[in-house]
Structures are given as C-alpha cells and as structure tokens.
Amino acid sequence: MPRKASLVKMAKSKAHSKKQQKRGVDFKKIKRKIGRKLPPPKNATNTEVKSKAITLPEQSVASEKGGLAVNKKGLTLKELLQQTSHHNPKVRRDALMGIKDLFLKYPAELTLHKYAVVEKLRERIGDNDKSVRETVYQLFKTVIFPSCKEDNQGLFISLTMAYIFNAMTHLSIDIRLMAFKFLDLVVQNYPPSFFLYAEKILQNYENILRKNQYQFYVQDKGKLKSVLAGLVYCLSLVPCNKKEVDSCEKNEAGQGMLHAFEPDVPTESAGFPVIFKKLKDLMPALADCFQDFVSLARAMPVLDAQSFDCMLGILQCIDIAAKFFIYGTNKGKSEYQPHGVPDVTVWDENFSSLLMKKVLQVFPLNPTCHVSEKDDDRYFILNTLVTGILLQFSEWICPPAIIWEKFLEFIENALLGKIYSGTRSGKVVWEKHLLSLLPFFPKLVSQVPSNWRSRLLQAFTKAFKDCHPESSLKLECLSTIEDMLIPKEDRLYLDSSDPEILDHQIAWIRELSPLLILLGDKHPSCSQVVLHLQLRLGQCALLNSSLAWEYDNMQYSLLEFYCTCQDDGKLHYGPFIRLPRDSQELSLCCLYYFSNLDSPLLQSIASCCLCPDLEPFILLRSIEVLHSAYAAGHVKITDYISFIITLLSRFKVLPENIYPVKESDIKMRNRKTYKSVTTVVCSNLSQIGDSSLVFQILEKVTVGQILMKPPLDNACAMLRMLAVLDSKPTRLSEQSIVTLSNFISGYLIDVVHCIPEDHDESKVSFPTLLYYLLPCFFLFDRSHKLLNLVLKTMGSLITASSSSQCSPNYIQYAMECSSRINAIVSVLVFMHKDVKVQKIIFAFKAEIVHMLQKILSLQSSEEISMMMFIELSSYPSILYLLRGNS
444, 447, 437, 318: which is closest to 387 by C-alpha? Predict the structure, then answer.
C-alpha cells in the first residue's frame, strides 16, 4: 500500500513539471561555481584578427642586409645601437657585446661611425645596471680608444665628459664610482682633457672625498682605492718645475679641439691659478681622510692591503700637490695668484698648519705593538712619503723639536737599513723608496745641528758603500754626492774646511775608481754616471786644494780601468776598451784635470791606444787630450815624448804588406789610421816648444828605436818625426848620422822592394812609394853627409852575398842579391826624379860612378837581369856620369 502511494505521487510530480516547462521561464538562473572564469556574453564582439602569410621572395630581411656589416647574430650597427636603449638590461648588455664583436670583425665601421657610436654609447655611462656599465667601460677601453689613438680624440672626449660629470652626481654610489673609473680611462688616453676640465674634475673629487661621502663605502676600500688612483694620475699631470710647465704649455698649444657637438664645452684649458685654488680646497678632504685611515689602521692587528693602498694614494696626492704649491710659490704670486684667491704666503701657512695637525703629528705611523714583516715594509713606505712631504715644506713648516727628532731618527735608520723587514723583497722596497729622500739630503745636512750632521753623514756613507753597484740607489747616491761636492749657485754644498765633512768627502771620492772597475763594461749607463761625477769633480778640484790632492791620487787606482801589465808580460785591458764611445770620451776628458799626470797612467793609456779594438776616433781623441794636458803643464815633456815614441814605434799596422792590399785584408786594415796618427803627432811636436830643444830630447830616443829595426810603417813615422823637427843645416849629431846612414840604406832598399817598381806617376803605387821615401829625401837635403854615407853603404851592398857574414843588418825583405841590386837601381832612379836630391847627388859623382860600375860589371852574371841596364839607359844624366868617368 505505501509503495503504491509513492508511485502515484511521483507520477503527479512529473506531470506538474512538464506543465511548468510549457509555460516558459522569463529569467533562467544559472548557478556558477566559485573560482571559475565567467563565459563571455552572447552579444560580445569578437576582435580577433586572423591573417595568412604572403611569400614575397624579393622583400626578405636577409636581402635588405646584403653588403652590410653584421655581428654574429646578423644585426647591423644601427640595430645594435638602437637596442642599447632597450628597457631590458640583458638586451642592452647583449647589444654592447654585439657592437664589440662587429667592430673587431669590421674595424672600418668604427672609423666611419665613431662619433655617432660615442654619442649613443655615452648614454650608458650612468646606466642603472652594473653589468651594462661594466660592458660599455670595457668596450671603450679595449676597442674604441685603442682604435682612435691617431685621430682627433678631443672631439669624442668632449662628447662623453658631460655624461661622466652627470653620473658623478648620481644618488647611487656605484654609478658615481663608475663615473670616476670612466674619467680615469679618458684622462689615461687623452691627458689634455684634465686641463680642459680641471675645475670640474677636482670639484667632483673633493665632493666624493668629503667625510660624509667616503664613509658610506669605507668598508669597501677597493672602491675608494680606485678613486684615489685616478686622482693620483690626474695630479701627476700637473707640472712641478719649469721644464714640465714649458712642456705642458707646448702640448696645450698644439691641441686643436672641435666642439661642434657640445656648445657648453670649454674652449681653452683651465689655467694654473684655477688648479691652484681647487687643490687648496681638496687638501682638507685628503687630510681628513688620511687621519681617519690612520686611526682605523692602528685599531687593526694587521694593516690590510686595501687600507694601505688607500693611505698610499692619499699621501701621493698630497705629495704631488705640495710640489705644485712650492713651484707656484717660488714662481711668484703675480703669475699664479688669480683674482679672489688669498695671498700665497697666508695660504701656505694655512696649509702648513693643516699638514702639521692631520699628517705630521701622527708620525711615525707604526703601531706600538709588534707587526709582521709585510707590515714593516708597508709602514716604511708610508713613513717615507710623510717624511718627503715634510722635507719639501721645510721652509714653511717648523715642527716641534720632539717631532723633528723623530723624523731625523727615521732618516738615519732608513739609510742604515734598520727599518725594512730584512727579506729580499723588503730590501727592494727599501732601495726603491729611499730614493725619494736622497734629493733632500744635501740641504738637510747643511741645516741640522752638528751632532745630527755627523750621524746622517755616517749613515749616508754606509748606505752608499753597501748598495749594489748598478742599483738605482747607487746612482741616486752619486747624484747626491755631486750636490754635496760641487758648488752651485742655486743650492748649498758642504764646506770641506770642516775636517769631519772632508773625511766623508774623501771617502766618497775614493769609492769612484773601484766602482768603475767593478761595473766593468756590463753596465755602461752606470759607468757614465760615475765618469760624469769624476769629470765634474776634476773641474772644480782646482778651486779646492784638499779635493785636488785626492783627485790626483785617483789616477793610480785607475790603472786597472785602462790597462795593466801582468807578471807574465801579457796586457790585461780594462773596461775602458769596451765601453761606448761617449763613456770613453768622458774618461779621457777626466785625464786633463789631473794636475800631474804620471808615467804609469800614461803607459796604461798608451797600451789602450795600441789595442786593435780601440776605435780610431778615440785613439785620435786620446792624443788630443794628452796634448792639451801637456800644453796646460799637467804632463812632463819627457813623459809626453815617451808616450809619442811608444805609440809610433809599437803600433801594429795591418796588413803587413804595403802594396797591394788583398780583399781579405780590407776588414783589418788600419794603415790609414796610423798615417793620421803620424800626421797629428808631427803637428803636435811642432807646437810643444823650442824645436831645437825638443829635437835634442827626441833624437836619442828615436834613433834608439830605429836601431831595433821596426816595420817599415813605424820606421817611416819616426823618420817623419825627425824630419819635422830637423832644420837646415841638420841638427843631427855625428853619431846619429852614422847610425841613420846604415839604417836608411836598408830602409830605402826594402821600401822599393815591397812596392812594385812602376815609376809612372799616374799609377796608384807611385804616391804610396813617395810617402815612404820623402822623409829620407828631406834628411838628405839637410845633411849631405848623410846622403854620402847612404850611397857608400848601398854601394857596398851591391857585391855583398846574402849568405855571407857581411850580409846587411838593416835589410828585412830584399835579402837576395838580385832583388837587392834591383832595389838599389830603383832608389837611384827615384833620387834622380826628386829635384832637390838630383842636385845633391852630382856632388857625389865618385860614389855614384863606383856603384854604376859595379852594377855594369855584373851584367854578364846569371843572377843579374839586363833589365837594370835598360832602366839606367832611360836616364841620360846617370849615363853621362858613367861615360865621363870612363
């Protein structure tokens, strides 16, 4: 029953629902689930546009770029430059990398479009993205600047400076630091840009170094180090002496710059007064920064590298500025003091007070506790810079006695080498930075009390002796010694009247000769510095008797520098032979200033002159200097003549054969040099005094050397020397005439034997033969007795046998009888050809006829050629003598 009732009820409900559906619904209620997207309304407009691609082969993108330079991704320069302004930093960075790739592949693109490229890329100097800034920096550094070095860089430098200055004022510290990095890059590649924008550059450095600015990144000292390095380079361009000022002004005058793209760019560089004023404003910021770093360093157990670099950069900036201030002050207020700038003297006092409070009073910088070896070297460098700043301002800064004592003690310990770590690297650091103090040493020693003068001189002498011979420290010590020994108008020098000062001066002088020998020929630049000091010392030694005596004694220690003779008789040449020409000439000039040039040194120099490796110029220069020394009374006449005789008698002429010269002998020939030496010596001998007195001194020595049978060239030179000093009638003694007659007869025979028997004056051999014969003819003209003895001696040689005991002693080449007789005939012929000798020989008719008869009697001999008779028959005057006698 209940089941039936339920079925009836369901049937009624279905019928009711169908009835309701037929009646209709005005608003259909749709149930929506939460979180699902609503469907669009039925009356919504469909805005979707559909299209199909149309293929047009003539309008492809690839064909539009045909012939254009593209990078690896196929983008042109124009497209890449457009992408550098993209909102996505990755796209900007990739575009910059693409530009670099394109310029490396197509360098001509940069040349053609460099100004447009720089004008677009400068916008990225202050980019908000760090990677973009670094990429554009590397692009300028590695590609753009190196490719435009030979072009007018001033134009595109002017395109970038406005953006660099704008980035320096950015709120972001990183962007500001990158701007200084860009500025350093610009100044490195185009130094005149600093002077064009000096006022703005120094102002921005002052702003970033202010106390409320640098403290933001003092924890990241590497960034401050980069800023200071750029400032150091900029200040290094500022001239600090007259020479640098002239060079700077010359460079500025030659730099023509175009500013068509930048109307607000300055048309001329900032003058020195502007730089002067801005540096004044910059110094307090540097001093405050340095003082804070000193406090920070003393609080640290170890001085880290970045803090050291920052402190070093600050001190370098102060040091350069100090040099510029001093030069500007000494130059004069009228030239360097602009309108509105305080008085230079007052300004120096203010700056001195600033240095005293912020820099000098913290000296020494070392902490009281023990530090490492590396810290020792770092603090030594910093203390050396502070000391140099004090010494530069010594005229304006008068520190208290306690502080002054600390500085003097530091200088003494630095010279003694007590401060550096003691390691090998520490010694290098010590030598390098000690150099900066030595230029102030002469002035410092002349101003300190006597007790400190003694201590400092002892320390300096020890440092000079202990440092390496070819080191930079040794060279700087030599320069300092010159300042303390040589008086100059613009600076003080040590008075040698003080015995203690004189002792040190003597010690320095005695080190010069051993130093020259120790340097040898391996370090010519160092040797030249020593020789220059020796020359300057010799030039001023005449004004100081104490130094002159010590300078004269120097010659005995110089023997090893020139040449010495060993126990076995061999010569040992010193460095002089192998040094460059300018050093050799310096050493020769030093010889002139020895007040008494002794014979041992003259012998040593003569041995050098005889060395085949010595240049002819230096050989002749040696003769010139020694002749000047003799003329000044620094060489005895006997020593001078001994030098000349040694030079002419022992000079080895090459090649030995006089004529002809083989091709293999051309490289080693020096006969022309020896002839020049002979000419110079003969000229000097005619000027050294009374010719008769000189001849008396020279005669015995020369004849003694001739008796030793020297080679023909040497014999000719000595005969020429006698002929120059001889007169008519002759000054030769009877003994010398007899001795020379035996030698000259053999000499004449050897000369015509060694030179071809061609008497044609047009031949090359004829002037050569006359060169060797003329000295004898001059002597014959002045002494007829000498000619008579020579003719008799040659007559006796006609029948002498080469193997007999009466063989001539002075004949070296024509030993055979036939060659000897041929040579005698040639000698007679040449005597006949000389006008003066021809007149003389007729006075000795008997001797000549006797010789001719001996020659004719030997015509039938197999050893004698008939060519002699043919030779004689060509001279009727000789045959006339023969016929007249018969």
Answer: 437
Query: Which one, of 676, 678, 675, 654, lies nearest residue 666 by Cα?
Result: 654
Cα–Cα distance measured from residue 300 to residue 367, given in angstroms and rounded to the nearest whole number: 9
The alpha carbon torsion through 335, 340, 343, 347 (nearest 10 deg) reads -110
Choose among 444, 443, 370, 372: nearest CA to 410: 444
DSSP 488: B
CB 680 within 8 A of CB 674: no
Q: Give the pair of three-digit tokens for residue 388.
A: 């140099």
Tokens 């001085």: give the residue.
303
Long-range contacts of 112-120 (CB under 8 A, 24+ apart): 113/77, 114/144, 114/147, 114/148, 114/151, 114/156, 115/155, 115/156, 115/159, 115/261, 116/81, 117/77, 117/81, 117/144, 118/144, 118/156, 118/159, 118/160, 119/156, 119/159, 119/261, 120/81, 120/84
- The helix/strand/coil state of 733 is coil
Q: Can you read off the two tokens belonging to residue 556? A: 């005995």
CB proximity list for 742: less than 8 A, separation 6 or greater: 789, 793, 809, 810
Residue 99 contacts residue 77 (beta carbons within 8 Å): yes
Nearest 10 degrees: CA dihedral of 99, 100, 101, 105? 100
Residues of the chain with pLDDT under 70: 1-28, 54-67, 150-153, 211-220, 241-271, 328-358, 367-373, 421-422, 489-493, 542-544, 659-668, 756-765, 800-816, 858-886
- Helix or strand holding residue 792 (H, E): helix 784-798
> DSSP of 40-99, one letter per residue?
PPTT-------------GGG-HHHHTTTS-B-TTS-BHHHHHHHTT-SSHHHHHHHHHHH
425-448 pLDDT, tens digit per residue, is 778 888 888 998 999 998 898 888
Place of tokens 């005149």: 192
Residue 46: both structure tokens together: 């469909």
Query: Residue 67, by phi and psi: left (phi above 0), alpha (psi -120 to 50) or beta?
Result: left
What are the tens digits of pLDDT across the range 372-400? 667 788 888 898 998 888 888 777 777 77
CA 702, CA 736: separation in Å to the nearest integer?
10
Q: What is the SS3 assignment for 859?
A: coil
Contacts 24+ apart (CB under 8 A), 109-112: 109/69, 109/77, 110/143, 110/144, 110/147, 110/148, 111/147
Beta strand spans in 712-795 (E) = none
Could you tell me which residues come within 8 angstroms of residue 770 by beta carbon, excluding any fewer than 6 positions away? Answer: none
Output the pTM of the full model. 0.76
Residue 540 and residue 583 in contact, taking contact as beta carbons nearer than 8 Å: no
Q: Phi and psi (nearest 5°) for 412?
A: -65, -45
- Angle 745-750-754 from CA coordinates, rounded to 5°: 155
Rounded CA separation 139/97 (Å): 8
3-class DSSP state for residue 281?
helix
Three-state secondary structure call for residue 574: coil
One DSSP character per residue, 166-187 reads: HHHT-S-HHHHHHHHHHHHHHH
Q: Which residues pair with 76 in a beta bridge?
A: 70
Q: What distance, in Å, lies between the first and last C-alpha atoms of the chain?
A: 205
Residues 6 or more apart whose Cβ sits within 8 Å of residue 27: none
In this prediction, residue 165 carries a pLDDT of 92
